Amino acid sequence: MTIARGRIWTLCAPLNVALLGFVLFFAGLRLARPGTVFYYTEGPVLGSLAALEAGGLPDLYPSDGWVEPPVVLTLYPPTYFVGAAGLNRWIGSAGTFTGLRIVSVAALFGLLVLLGLHARRRRAPPTWILALTAAALLTPGVYRLAGGAQADTLALLFTWVGVTAALGTTGDRVRSGALPVFAAATAFFFAIFTKQSFVAAPAALFASLVLERRYGSASLFAVGLASATLLGVWLLDTATTGGYVANTLGALTGASGWAHLTTSLSNSRPLQWFPIAAAILFVMRSRLGLGFPEIYLGGSVLLHTAAMLKTGSSVNYLLEPTFALLLLAAVRWVPGATSGARETHDAPPPRTRALAMLFAIALGLTASAAALREYPTMKAWASGAGSARMAEFEGYPLADPLFFPAVLDRGGRPWLNDPFAFGAMEETGHWDPARLVSDLESRRIPFALSVVDIGPSPAPPGVGTRDLVLAYFWRSRPVWTALTGSYEATVSGPMTVWLPREEPQS
Questions:
Q1: pLDDT over 90 for what percent of the chain?
Q2: 144-180: per-residue pLDDT in tens?
C-alpha cells in the first residue's frame, strides 16, 4: 500500500512541477504587459499608487470627502504601495503595474517556499510538498492573482512569516519563549498594515496560547499587537487629517447579503478549492485536533466568508483560506513508513513527463490568451474605435478601473478610480455625487469610459449595488441623468466612450 501510494505521488510530480511553470508563465506574461489590466480591481490599485507617487500619503488617503479631483479611494493600508513605489523608483517604472506585480510575484513564491518549509519540518517527502503546491496553484483564488496588482499575496506572506516564527516542528504548539511570539507579532503587524482583513492568524495564535495555558504570553501578544496596530492607525490618520480611516473603511458600508456571497463563488469558477478542501480534510481526518492549524483554518474561512457576504464579487477572499488549508495539510503530515525516507520508486516514463508538460503549457497558453482577449489594452481599443479626441485632454476623465493604465499613459488621473466603491458609498449616504454631477453637466470632464451596461434608464428606486453590482454607480439617478444628458455614447463591442455633446440635451 505504501509503495502504491508513493508511486502515485511520484507519477504526479512532473505535472506538479509543470503547474508551477504555468504560474511562472502567467505571472511573467503580466509583468511583460505593464499596461494591461488582467483583473478588474487592478485599476483602482494602480490609481492609489499613482496618487502616492504624485503627492504622498495625503493624496493616497484624501480627506476632502472625495470632492476635489483626482478622486481616489484607497481601501488598503500603505505597506504594499510604499514597497511598490520604492521599487518603481529603483527601476524607473512609475505609472505602470511593474512594481506592484513584481512585489506580488515575489510574495507568492515566498509563500510557496514557506509551504515547503512547513512540510519539510514534518519530514514529508518532496512529492507531497509538490502535491500541496499544485493544489494551491490549481485554486482560482491563487492562480487568478498570480502576478496581479493586489495586496493579498504580500499580506499573506507577512502572515506566514509570523506563523513560521511561532510554530515549532510539530505544527501544534507555539514555540516556548518570548522571542517567537514577539517575532510573530511583528510580522502580523506588517500583514495588517498591508491589508487590514488579515487577522485570522493573530487570533488563532492568541487562542492557541490560551489553550496551552500560557496566559502571560497570550496577554502580552494581544495587548502588544493591538496597541501597536491602534497606534499605527492613529499616526496614519493624523498624518492624513482623517483621510486614512475614511478611505480604509469608506467603502465597507454596504449591506450584507447572500447575493454577494454567491456572486463571489460564481466568479471563482472553476471551484477547485472545494473538492481540494474536501479531499485534504478527508485524508487528515484522523489527525485533526484543536491546534493552531485547525483554529487558523476555521477562523480564516469564517472571516472571509463574512467579507464575501459584505462586499462579494472577488476571488481574493479565497486566498488565505486556501493557504490555511495547505498549512493544515503540511503540518499534519503523518506518512507512516515513508516518513523522512527517500523514495526509491522508478521515475515515470519520458512519455508521461512529456504529456504532463504539454498539458501544463497548453493550460497556461489558453488561460493567458483568454485573459488578453478579455482585458485588451485601452490604447489598442481607442485607436480601433477612432477616438482621436481622447489622445490629449485637460481635466479628469470618468473611467472604469479597466482603463486606468490608459489614463496614466496620457499623463493624467481619472475623476474616480473605483466606481463600484463610490457607488456603494453613494447608496449608503457616505458620498455625495453633487460635484461629479456638476462637472458632468458643465462638460468639464473630457470623456467617460465604461465597460458595464449603463442601460436605457437609471436604476429603479430601491435597487442598489446588491442587484446591479458594478453597474449601479453608472445607473444611479443623478450620475445617469447628467451623463446621458451632457455626453454622447459611442459603443465598440462591450466598451462605451462618452464624449461631450456640442449642446447638452434639454
A1: 32
A2: 788 889 999 999 999 999 999 998 776 667 888 889 9
Distance separating alpha carbons of residues 137 and 319, to the nearest angstrom: 11
* Count of structural domains, the chain: 2
Max CA distance (Å), the chain: 82
Residue 350 placed within a domain: no
- pLDDT band at residue 338 under the 50/70/90 scheme: very low
**Is residue 285 domain-shared with residue 416, that is, in the same domain?**
no
Question: Looking at per-residue confidence, does 226 or 327 come out higher?
Answer: 226
**Residues contacting 200, CB < 8 A, separation 6+:** 296, 299, 300, 303, 304, 320, 324
pLDDT (average), residues 180-206: 95
| Cα 399 to Cα 48, 372, 408, distances in angstroms | 14, 20, 11
DSSP result, 391-452 = SS-SS--EE-GGGHHHHHHTT---SBS-HHHHHHHHHTTS--THHHHHHHHTT-S--EEESS
Residue in the block written with cell 497558453: 365
* Boundary residue ending a domain (333, 365, 396): 333
Q: What is the mean pLDDT of the chain?
A: 80
Run of H or E including 20: helix 2-32
Judged by DSSP in three states, 500 sits in strand
Section 229-248 average pLDDT:
94
- Residue 493's domain comprises 378-500
Q: Are residues 389 and 242 in the same domain?
A: no
* Distance from C-alpha of 77 to C-alpha of 155, rounded to nearest angstrom: 10
* CA pseudo-torsion sign 21, 94, 68, 447: negative
What cell numbers appear for 191 in the block?
500583514
Sign of the alpha-carbon torsion through 409, 60, 28, 271: negative
| Neighbouring-strand partners of residue 489 | 498
Task: Report pLDDT digits (tens) over 447-492.
Answer: 888 888 788 899 998 888 777 878 899 999 999 999 999 999 887 7
Q: Which residues, 6+ apart, have CB-to-CB distance to 481 below 8 Å?
A: 437, 458
* Together in a domain, 290 and 387: no
356 pLDDT above the threshold of 60: no
Q: Where are the alpha helices (DSSP H) in 33-151?
A: 42-55, 57-60, 79-91, 98-121, 126-137, 140-143
Alpha-carbon dihedral of residues 188, 190, 196, 197, nearest 10 degrees?
-40
Question: Considering the entire predicted model, what is its pTM?
Answer: 0.86
**Distant-in-sequence, close-in-space partners of 345: CB < 8 Å, separation ≥ 6:** 3, 6, 7, 10
Do 146 and 280 fall within a single domain? yes
